[in-house]
Amino acid sequence: MEPFVLRTERLVLDQPAASDVDDITAYCTDPVFEGFMTTPWPYERAHAEYFVNDYVRTGWESGREWTWAIREGERMPLLGVVGVRFLSAPSVGYWLGGPHRGRGIMPEALTVVIDAVFERTEAKLVRWECVAGNQASLRVAQKTGFRYAGAEPGMIPGRDDVAKDSWHGVLRRADTRDPQPGWPLLAERRFRAFADNAHYVNLRIVDERRCGGSPPRKKLTGHGSVPVPRQCRLLTFSPAAGGDSWPPDSFRATPARPGPGTP
Questions:
Q1: Taking the mean position of all CA atoms in its chain, how far away is CA 66?
Q2: Where is mean pLDDT largest: 4-18, 25-39, 92-106, 243-257?
Q3: Which CATH class, in words, describes the domain spanning 6-172?
Q4: Phi, psi at residue 146, to the nearest 5°?
Q5: Is the distance from CB of 190 to CB of 209 less than 8 angstroms?
Q6: Angle 11-8-52 (CA atoms, 0-180°, nearest 5)?
Protein backbone atom coordinates (compact mmCIF):
# COMPACT_ATOMS: atom_id res chain seq x y z
CA MET A 1 0.00 0.00 0.00
CA GLU A 2 1.36 3.39 -0.99
CA PRO A 3 0.95 6.13 1.63
CA PHE A 4 -1.42 8.92 0.71
CA VAL A 5 -2.04 12.41 2.07
CA LEU A 6 -5.33 13.52 3.64
CA ARG A 7 -6.48 17.12 4.04
CA THR A 8 -9.16 18.98 5.95
CA GLU A 9 -9.96 22.68 6.08
CA ARG A 10 -7.05 23.35 8.43
CA LEU A 11 -5.04 20.11 8.66
CA VAL A 12 -2.66 18.09 6.52
CA LEU A 13 -2.16 14.40 7.34
CA ASP A 14 1.03 13.04 5.80
CA GLN A 15 3.94 10.78 6.72
CA PRO A 16 6.05 11.20 9.87
CA ALA A 17 9.57 12.22 8.88
CA ALA A 18 13.03 12.29 10.42
CA SER A 19 12.48 15.96 11.22
CA ASP A 20 9.62 14.92 13.52
CA VAL A 21 11.69 12.68 15.78
CA ASP A 22 12.41 15.32 18.41
CA ASP A 23 8.76 16.36 18.65
CA ILE A 24 7.57 12.76 18.87
CA THR A 25 10.10 12.07 21.62
CA ALA A 26 8.99 15.12 23.60
CA TYR A 27 5.28 14.40 23.28
CA CYS A 28 5.56 10.70 24.12
CA THR A 29 7.32 11.39 27.42
CA ASP A 30 4.09 12.93 28.72
CA PRO A 31 3.11 10.89 31.84
CA VAL A 32 -0.33 10.38 30.30
CA PHE A 33 1.29 7.98 27.83
CA GLU A 34 2.49 5.67 30.60
CA GLY A 35 -1.01 4.83 31.75
CA PHE A 36 -3.09 5.04 28.59
CA MET A 37 -0.88 4.23 25.60
CA THR A 38 1.01 1.17 24.37
CA THR A 39 4.07 3.20 23.37
CA PRO A 40 7.32 2.18 25.13
CA TRP A 41 7.93 3.57 28.60
CA PRO A 42 10.19 5.28 29.51
CA TYR A 43 10.11 6.74 26.01
CA GLU A 44 13.46 7.53 24.40
CA ARG A 45 14.61 9.12 21.17
CA ALA A 46 15.54 5.71 19.75
CA HIS A 47 11.88 4.70 20.01
CA ALA A 48 10.83 7.68 17.91
CA GLU A 49 13.51 6.92 15.32
CA TYR A 50 12.28 3.32 15.04
CA PHE A 51 8.69 4.51 14.75
CA VAL A 52 9.47 6.89 11.89
CA ASN A 53 12.05 4.80 10.01
CA ASP A 54 10.63 1.29 10.41
CA TYR A 55 7.25 0.92 12.09
CA VAL A 56 5.30 3.37 9.93
CA ARG A 57 6.96 2.24 6.69
CA THR A 58 6.42 -1.51 7.24
CA GLY A 59 2.82 -0.91 8.27
CA TRP A 60 2.07 0.76 4.94
CA GLU A 61 4.06 -1.77 2.92
CA SER A 62 2.21 -4.71 4.43
CA GLY A 63 -1.16 -2.96 4.45
CA ARG A 64 -1.58 -3.84 8.14
CA GLU A 65 -1.51 -0.28 9.43
CA TRP A 66 -1.93 3.19 7.95
CA THR A 67 -0.28 5.98 9.95
CA TRP A 68 -0.28 9.75 9.50
CA ALA A 69 1.37 12.74 11.10
CA ILE A 70 -1.08 15.53 11.89
CA ARG A 71 0.04 19.02 10.84
CA GLU A 72 -1.51 22.45 10.43
CA GLY A 73 -0.20 22.81 6.89
CA GLU A 74 2.42 21.56 4.47
CA ARG A 75 5.87 21.13 6.06
CA MET A 76 4.54 22.33 9.42
CA PRO A 77 5.54 20.72 12.74
CA LEU A 78 3.95 17.47 13.83
CA LEU A 79 1.05 17.92 16.28
CA GLY A 80 0.18 14.28 16.82
CA VAL A 81 -0.38 10.94 15.12
CA VAL A 82 -3.47 9.08 13.93
CA GLY A 83 -3.65 5.63 12.38
CA VAL A 84 -5.74 2.61 11.43
CA ARG A 85 -4.74 -0.95 12.31
CA PHE A 86 -6.40 -3.64 10.20
CA LEU A 87 -7.38 -6.41 12.60
CA SER A 88 -10.65 -8.34 12.28
CA ALA A 89 -12.02 -4.87 11.47
CA PRO A 90 -10.21 -1.56 11.04
CA SER A 91 -9.33 -0.13 14.46
CA VAL A 92 -8.33 3.52 14.93
CA GLY A 93 -5.76 4.89 17.33
CA TYR A 94 -4.45 8.39 17.94
CA TRP A 95 -2.55 10.76 20.20
CA LEU A 96 -2.02 14.49 20.28
CA GLY A 97 0.87 16.42 21.78
CA GLY A 98 -0.02 18.14 25.05
CA PRO A 99 0.23 21.75 23.81
CA HIS A 100 -2.27 21.08 21.01
CA ARG A 101 -5.11 19.47 22.97
CA GLY A 102 -8.46 21.13 23.45
CA ARG A 103 -8.63 22.72 19.97
CA GLY A 104 -10.78 20.13 18.19
CA ILE A 105 -7.85 18.88 16.14
CA MET A 106 -8.25 15.17 16.77
CA PRO A 107 -11.95 14.83 15.92
CA GLU A 108 -11.25 16.67 12.66
CA ALA A 109 -8.29 14.41 11.82
CA LEU A 110 -10.07 11.22 12.83
CA THR A 111 -13.11 12.05 10.71
CA VAL A 112 -11.11 12.30 7.50
CA VAL A 113 -9.24 9.07 8.34
CA ILE A 114 -12.51 7.19 8.81
CA ASP A 115 -13.76 8.61 5.51
CA ALA A 116 -10.63 7.24 3.82
CA VAL A 117 -11.17 3.78 5.31
CA PHE A 118 -14.72 3.57 3.98
CA GLU A 119 -13.73 5.01 0.59
CA ARG A 120 -10.69 2.78 0.04
CA THR A 121 -11.81 -0.52 1.61
CA GLU A 122 -14.91 -2.68 1.80
CA ALA A 123 -15.02 -2.42 5.60
CA LYS A 124 -18.53 -2.29 7.04
CA LEU A 125 -17.44 -0.71 10.30
CA VAL A 126 -14.53 0.89 12.14
CA ARG A 127 -13.69 0.07 15.75
CA TRP A 128 -12.28 2.25 18.51
CA GLU A 129 -10.90 1.25 21.87
CA CYS A 130 -8.95 2.90 24.65
CA VAL A 131 -7.74 1.93 28.09
CA ALA A 132 -10.61 2.42 30.55
CA GLY A 133 -10.24 5.83 32.15
CA ASN A 134 -8.85 7.62 29.11
CA GLN A 135 -11.53 10.28 29.07
CA ALA A 136 -9.86 12.40 26.39
CA SER A 137 -9.90 9.51 23.91
CA LEU A 138 -13.50 8.74 24.80
CA ARG A 139 -14.56 12.32 24.07
CA VAL A 140 -12.92 12.21 20.63
CA ALA A 141 -14.69 8.96 19.73
CA GLN A 142 -18.00 10.33 20.96
CA LYS A 143 -17.63 13.56 18.96
CA THR A 144 -16.72 11.59 15.83
CA GLY A 145 -19.94 9.55 15.87
CA PHE A 146 -18.90 6.23 17.40
CA ARG A 147 -21.46 4.27 19.39
CA TYR A 148 -20.37 2.98 22.78
CA ALA A 149 -20.06 -0.83 22.70
CA GLY A 150 -19.16 -1.53 26.32
CA ALA A 151 -16.16 -2.28 28.51
CA GLU A 152 -14.10 -5.44 28.11
CA PRO A 153 -10.45 -6.47 27.65
CA GLY A 154 -8.79 -4.67 24.75
CA MET A 155 -7.94 -6.28 21.43
CA ILE A 156 -4.50 -4.64 21.48
CA PRO A 157 -2.31 -5.92 24.34
CA GLY A 158 -0.41 -3.58 26.62
CA ARG A 159 3.35 -3.36 27.12
CA ASP A 160 3.30 -6.55 29.19
CA ASP A 161 1.34 -8.39 26.47
CA VAL A 162 -1.70 -8.49 28.75
CA ALA A 163 -5.01 -7.09 27.52
CA LYS A 164 -6.13 -4.14 29.62
CA ASP A 165 -9.67 -3.26 30.62
CA SER A 166 -10.83 -1.04 27.78
CA TRP A 167 -13.74 1.01 26.50
CA HIS A 168 -14.97 0.07 23.02
CA GLY A 169 -16.92 1.83 20.28
CA VAL A 170 -18.17 1.05 16.78
CA LEU A 171 -18.89 3.30 13.79
CA ARG A 172 -20.73 1.61 10.90
CA ARG A 173 -20.56 2.70 7.29
CA ALA A 174 -24.21 3.80 7.26
CA ASP A 175 -24.08 5.62 10.60
CA THR A 176 -24.38 9.36 10.87
CA ARG A 177 -21.40 11.19 12.37
CA ASP A 178 -23.51 12.87 15.02
CA PRO A 179 -22.66 12.20 18.68
CA GLN A 180 -24.60 9.17 19.88
CA PRO A 181 -26.27 8.54 23.26
CA GLY A 182 -25.26 5.78 25.64
CA TRP A 183 -21.71 6.83 26.51
CA PRO A 184 -20.46 6.63 30.11
CA LEU A 185 -20.88 9.80 32.09
CA LEU A 186 -17.48 11.08 33.11
CA ALA A 187 -16.48 11.93 36.64
CA GLU A 188 -17.41 15.35 37.91
CA ARG A 189 -16.79 16.90 41.26
CA ARG A 190 -19.82 18.74 42.57
CA PHE A 191 -19.78 21.36 45.31
CA ARG A 192 -23.02 21.77 47.18
CA ALA A 193 -23.21 25.23 48.71
CA PHE A 194 -25.02 26.21 51.86
CA ALA A 195 -25.49 29.95 51.91
CA ASP A 196 -25.17 31.98 55.08
CA ASN A 197 -25.53 35.70 55.67
CA ALA A 198 -21.99 36.52 54.66
CA HIS A 199 -20.23 36.42 51.32
CA TYR A 200 -18.94 32.95 52.13
CA VAL A 201 -20.56 29.61 51.59
CA ASN A 202 -19.78 26.36 53.30
CA LEU A 203 -19.18 23.59 50.81
CA ARG A 204 -19.10 19.85 50.95
CA ILE A 205 -17.27 18.18 48.08
CA VAL A 206 -18.88 15.13 46.58
CA ASP A 207 -16.98 12.97 44.13
CA GLU A 208 -19.72 11.61 41.89
CA ARG A 209 -19.01 8.91 39.31
CA ARG A 210 -21.26 7.00 36.99
CA CYS A 211 -20.28 4.53 34.26
CA GLY A 212 -22.32 2.51 31.82
CA GLY A 213 -25.67 3.45 33.33
CA SER A 214 -24.87 2.26 36.85
CA PRO A 215 -26.05 4.38 39.81
CA PRO A 216 -23.63 7.15 40.80
CA ARG A 217 -21.22 6.46 43.60
CA LYS A 218 -20.70 9.42 45.92
CA LYS A 219 -17.91 10.02 48.38
CA LEU A 220 -17.29 13.00 50.62
CA THR A 221 -13.79 14.21 49.78
CA GLY A 222 -13.52 17.51 51.60
CA HIS A 223 -15.21 20.54 53.07
CA GLY A 224 -14.48 24.18 53.78
CA SER A 225 -15.42 27.73 52.85
CA VAL A 226 -14.60 29.96 49.91
CA PRO A 227 -15.67 33.54 49.12
CA VAL A 228 -18.40 33.48 46.46
CA PRO A 229 -21.55 35.52 45.79
CA ARG A 230 -24.39 34.82 48.19
CA GLN A 231 -26.62 33.88 45.27
CA CYS A 232 -24.46 30.84 44.51
CA ARG A 233 -25.93 27.44 45.20
CA LEU A 234 -24.14 24.90 42.99
CA LEU A 235 -20.46 24.88 42.09
CA THR A 236 -18.69 22.42 39.80
CA PHE A 237 -15.08 22.00 38.87
CA SER A 238 -13.11 19.40 36.99
CA PRO A 239 -10.43 17.27 38.68
CA ALA A 240 -7.89 18.79 36.31
CA ALA A 241 -8.66 22.24 37.66
CA GLY A 242 -8.27 21.56 41.34
CA GLY A 243 -7.73 17.87 41.94
CA ASP A 244 -8.46 16.87 45.52
CA SER A 245 -6.84 19.98 46.95
CA TRP A 246 -8.67 22.48 49.10
CA PRO A 247 -9.58 25.15 48.30
CA PRO A 248 -10.21 24.37 44.62
CA ASP A 249 -8.24 26.37 42.11
CA SER A 250 -11.28 27.17 40.03
CA PHE A 251 -14.97 26.51 39.90
CA ARG A 252 -18.14 27.54 38.09
CA ALA A 253 -21.12 28.92 39.99
CA THR A 254 -24.77 28.58 39.05
CA PRO A 255 -27.57 30.78 40.42
CA ALA A 256 -29.38 29.80 43.58
CA ARG A 257 -32.77 28.17 43.32
CA PRO A 258 -35.54 30.06 45.11
CA GLY A 259 -36.75 28.87 48.46
CA PRO A 260 -35.13 28.01 51.79
CA GLY A 261 -32.95 25.05 52.58
CA THR A 262 -30.13 23.33 50.83
CA PRO A 263 -30.10 22.54 47.12
A1: 20
A2: 4-18
A3: alpha beta
A4: -65, 150
A5: no
A6: 45
Domain limits of the chain?
6-172, 188-255
The amino acid that residue 8 corresponds to is T
**In the structure, what pLDDT confidence band is assigned to residue 100 with cuts at 50, 70 and 90?**
very high
What is the per-residue pLDDT across 248-259, written as a single tens digit (0 to 9) for each?
A: 444 444 333 333
The two beta strands, 188-195 and 200-209, are antiparallel
Whether cis (ω within 30° of 0) applies to the bond prior to 42 is yes
pLDDT digits (tens, 9 = 90+) for 164-219: 888 999 999 999 999 998 888 764 434 333 333 333 334 443 333 333 334 444 33
User: Whole-angstrom Cα distance, residue 22 to residue 47?
Assistant: 11
Instruction: Give the whole-angstrom CA distance, residue 225 versus residue 54.
Output: 56
Q: Specify the range with the lowest mean pLDDT, choosing from 54-58, 84-88, 96-100, 259-263.
A: 259-263
Rounded to two decimals, the pTM is: 0.70
> What is the Cα–Cα distance from 146 to 172, expressed in whole angstroms?
8
> 204, 172 in Cβ contact below 8 A?
no
Angle at 146 (CA atoms; ends 144, 147), nearest 5 degrees: 150
| Contact indicator for 82, 112 with CB cutoff of 8 Å | no
**Helices (runs of H) and strands (runs of E) counted in the chain:** 7, 13
Q: DSSP assignment, residue 52?
A: I
> Considering just the CA atoms, what is the radius of gyration of the chain in Å?
22
